[in-house]
Amino acid sequence: MSRTAVTNVRVFDGTGLTEPRTVVLDGAVIGDDPAGAETVDGSGRVLLPGLIDTHIHLHGRESLEQLARYGVTTGLDMATFSADLLASLRHQPGLTDIRSAGVPAIGPAGMHARIPGMPAEAVVTDPGQAGAFVAARVAAGSDYLKIVLEAPGGGGPELPAARALTDAAHDAGLLVVAHATSAGAYTMALDAGVDVVTHAPLGAPINADDVARARIVAPTLIMMKGVSTTVGQPQLYDGAKASVTALYRAGVPILAGTDANNEPGVPAEVAHGESLHDELALLVAAGLSTVDALRAATVLPAGHFGLDDRGAIRSGLRADLVLLDADPLADITATRAIARVWCAGVEVKDPAGRWTRAPRAR
């Protein structure tokens, strides 16, 4: 079993940086004994837990490779229709580890109903369909449920169906994530009792009552900025940014997610891996501290999605690690200064066989 010791490195512990110490990679987990280990000098460097992107869409092995090169060692997929594709992408040594919602629940109209390849079984309009839909997701190996909500009358599942889906998922032990890109959809998501709301609405910000009711939000600011640019109304992004500021000030946990995809018919394509670094910078611009931005991509998603074996640098946890050449607490763009990445103890290599080095932000 291979063993690597990163010496003299400052470690992000969820609250700040430690004094220089040694971190041991003992096979796939973090260990304690550096005896006989290959050493990597971490002097002047910072070690992060592997980053977690809480909103991606998978298209093949290349998605995992691109995520891993940018230090994203866990990806939470929010809709992939092929169970065979998902099975082929799970548990790939040296690549990003995934969880998935599989087929999402959508309504009969709206953008998602027009996405090429969306299966007919995704459409849920009647509360009586909820139990069978959730049972099918459990049988297919989904790790949580995704519901695509619109404002009332906007073509998504209406509130009775959303509530029934949420109740059925909770009965099955599944977390519920709701897509909501408008203030009205946010209200419906909270009325339905979902656990996590993904996206921040463009235009009108979330109202104060819904800010107070929100549990966990993954705002995907990089996607919302892309959409506002695509439709030629960049000012719409101001509402999304204002919502994140209000949620953060209210103490709502904010998770880092990007909606990374290269899906035809989606308003904005977002690059896997690199975009998470953009998202962290946007979260800081919306008011998060650099510490809380890093928490949004490490300990918080690990805790809220039940990933108890990662999200921190501690003995016995997965050896998902990102070694940086600069300090992201001083400047969040330093997360791009990647020197080395390990996924469950396996070092990520670029096509030339070296460790990856992501480009610095311009």
Q: How would you characterize the overall build of this protein?
A:
The chain has 362 residues and is α/β, with parallel strands linked by helices. The longest helix has 13 residues. Helices cover 28% and strands 19% of the residues. α3 crosses α4, α4 crosses α5 and α9 crosses α10. The N and C termini lie far apart (40 Å). The model has no long low-confidence stretch (mean pLDDT 94). The protein contains eleven helices and 15 strands.
Give a quick rundown of the structure.
The chain has 362 residues and is an alpha/beta fold.
Class from helix and strand fractions: alpha/beta
What is the terminal-to-terminal distance? Answer: 40 Å
Q: Helical percent range?
A: 25-40%
Overall geometry: globular
Instruction: List how many beta strands DSSP finds.
Output: 15
Query: What composes the largest sheet?
Result: 8 strands, mixed
